[in-house]
């Protein structure tokens, strides 16, 4: 009987401490938005989920910075060409699979949705994660080189005259001058 009383007392005390400490309650604030407004854990918007996915996409791509451009190759840590790089990043980060051909990525209507390029401000309609297509000697229509828009005027790409995977500003570069088409993979 004494054992049961001690056990019951221990349970009641533990429950009281647990309840008073707040450990037994759901936290009131699970996160904050960029504007520091509180957001409940179950109230994340699809755009916040999208942002997390796109941040992961760019982070995964950045793991390959400096890896050499190698035609027709898709080997992390060893080499990629431009379209094998974009294809690998999407598959590795988000499980999204599509062709490793830059022409297919550009012209296949089943891959992504077109994004209008505003000639007066090419960054205006772009969003992080958009595939960017450039006119080059291989394809003036924008199927010769492809990279990933990383937001804030940056591109994540392999090759493009650099000979490796880079993350760099587009402003004032070949990338800014030769951008002709964009596609959104994550809506």
TrEMBL record:
Domain NlpC/P60, first and last residues per copy: 51-186
Gene3D superfamilies xref list: endopeptidase domain like (from Nostoc punctiforme)
Residues making up the signal peptide according to the UniProt record: 1-30
GO molecular function, one term: cysteine-type peptidase activity
SUPFAM superfamilies xref list: Cysteine proteinases (SSF54001)
GO BP term, example: proteolysis
Keywords annotated in UniProt: Hydrolase, Protease, Signal, Thiol protease
PANTHER family, alphabetized: MUREIN DD-ENDOPEPTIDASE MEPH-RELATED
Family: Belongs to the peptidase C40 family.
Protein name from the UniProt record: Hydrolase Nlp/P60
The organism of origin for this protein: Effusibacillus lacus
